[in-house]
Amino acid sequence: MTKSSSRIPRFFEKKIEERLHILKNFSDLNSDDLILLKQTLVQGDAHLYASMIENTVSVMPVPLGIATNFVINGKDYLIPMAIEEPSVIAGASFAAKLARSLGGFTSSCSSSIMIGIIQLVGVSDNEAAIQAIDSHKSELIVFAHAKDPVLIQQGGGIRDFSYHTYQTDRGDMLVVRIHVDVQDAMGANIVNTFAEAVASRITDLVKVRSCLRIVSNLAMQRMCRSLAVWPTHDLGQDIVDGILDAVALARVDPYRCVTHNKGIMNGIDAVALATGNDFRALEAGAHGYAAFSGSYQPLTKFYQNGGGDLVGEIELPLAVGTVGGAVKSNPVAQLALKILGVQSASELACVMAAVGLAQNFAALRALVGEGIQRGHMRLHSKNIAIQAGVPFSLVDEIAQQMIGENAISVGRALELWKDKQ
User: Does domain 113-215 have CATH number 3.30.70.420?
Assistant: First the structure.
């Protein structure tokens, strides 16, 4: 192996120390670089993280914070959020504080059904194939259920099949969707297992070739909704009008709408990451749903009620779990769930929907008020001081001075530090 080659046979079998040695030679890492990678890994559980993904060399820390003030369905929550972006937790907490006086958030979720896709190609007669599969549906379900008897004992399992035909540039295709009640799991592994089991029997039954056998992240049967009311007398009519104008723009301008929805996912992703859930799947599902009508739309809507107060609503699919996967293997995720005190995946999804709505409201309020950058940079001031090389013992002092001057930049941090020397 030469330094310039990334072809490293059996890298996944090597111990972490050996991988670090290879990395050092390839990337010209110095001793301080290696110390940082090792220390970060040691602070966690090296064996745990090595088992979670392949080729582990270290851990990438993300700050874990707590959003306060939330009342959801009449229950108070402290909400763990893992995120590196300043202002997200502060914004969500402030939005929840303003909503408390009128009851906080009301959230609900539809069901725990996930969809698995079985793609069949080379079907000569779709109707005959559908009839053959449907007539053997019961035995196909029994066969699949044998792959995960624990879920069945807990009341989950395949609830139904549905059939969809498509004309593509590769010819006609038949898709069998299996509808699986995954209970308190996110469900990807369960659905994939069932899809593969069912597909193996279908191909024998109708003599076709199966291609994809996988979960869909467009979890349209796991829809979550949340609603909150913010008093106009706390906001001011100018802010309310600004929010309504901003949302109106998001409905017609996809360039604005993507950022509108990104702000929502800032909150939802942070809760997902803290609780060991797959935020990438949530992102895909949310943006897929936003475009489901044929045009990309905001996931929230705002309007004034009869009393003149501002009402916010959110609706999106949220496939999350409180059991299985990283949720169970990561002790910090388990602790985050303990802090939340949720009793089910549905309750966790209700919390996430409320956080997404709160974060969207907070971002819109800042945008149409003082502007997003002033508050964001105020919270970002410590990062700016660190970027300037200010010693940690002086970071808070320098950051506060920059805030007081409203002059937050690396250059100004350097000047203030120089004055301290």
Answer: yes
